[in-house]
Amino acid sequence: MRGERQGSGDSKGGWGERAAAVVDGSLPPAPLPRELMLEVFQHARECYPEECCGLLIGPEESATPCRFVRCTNVQSQRRSKGESELDARHAFWIDEQELLHALRTAEEGGEALRVVYHSHIDTPAYLSHTDLQSALGPDGLPLWPGVEHLVISVQEDGVQGGVLFGWDPETESFVGRRVQEAG
Ligand SMILES: [Zn+2]
Q1: Which of 65, 95, 148, 178 is 20 to 30 A from 102, comparing alpha carbons?
Q2: What spacing in Å lies between the alpha carbon of 177 and ligand 1's midpoint?
Q3: Where exactly are the structural domains of the chain?
């Protein structure tokens, strides 16, 4: 699983060109359990200036995630091996063993993957074209139906916020809603 941002900084016309989906301010915010939100934001701060990544897992019968799994971003190792031009400051790649283990554990416990999260360093919480590519299968539909993608914007002075991207089957595109602590 991967998500890579093309280019770096604002040298190629700004982040807008790299965004495949941005937050839709007209939509109501997406509620996320407070504890999970704090954990994910904390993870993003700890990994800065590299992108963090991880999973939110929830019970089969509920769409609301209830626990999180921190994963290792192995993007810099991929770059060392020549598999990508981007390092962990500009892209993420979840360690595949960790991913398999987390998915297996969830399945055994009657749980399901609900959200894949990662952070963006010093740039807004959009879904990049490569984030989008990695979220879709060859048929152009989500690789994991029902799984949402949470992008957290983090800067040196802290987290700027998060946007949760969910698939809209009508428009066949991801729609972004700002995340908010669930009451
Ligand atoms: Zn991204």
Answers
A1: 178
A2: 15
A3: 20-181
Q: What is the per-residue pLDDT across 153-162, written as a single tens digit (0 to 9) for each?
A: 999 999 999 9
**Dihedral Cα 82, 10, 16, 133, nearest 10 deg:** 0
Instruction: Give CA–CA dist 62/113, Å, rounded.
Output: 11
Q: How far is the CA of 33 from the centre of ligand 1 (A)?
A: 22
Q: How far apart are CA 182 and CA 42, in angstroms?
A: 17
Ligand 1 center to residue 6 CA distance, Å? Answer: 10
Distance 29 CA to ligand 1 centre (A): 20
Residue 96, helix vs strand vs coil? helix
Rg (CA), the chain: 15
Q: How many helices (H) and strands (E) does the chain have?
A: 4, 11
Q: Rounded to whole angstroms, how far apart are CA atoms 64 and 89?
A: 29
Taking the model in full, what pTM does it have? 0.90
Give the model confidence (pLDDT) of 119-133 as tens digits.
999 999 999 988 998
CB atoms within 10 A of CB 137: 10
Distance 24 CA to ligand 1 centre (A): 17
Residue 87's nearest CA partner among 176, 2, 173 is 2
The token pair that represents 51 in the structure block: 């992108």
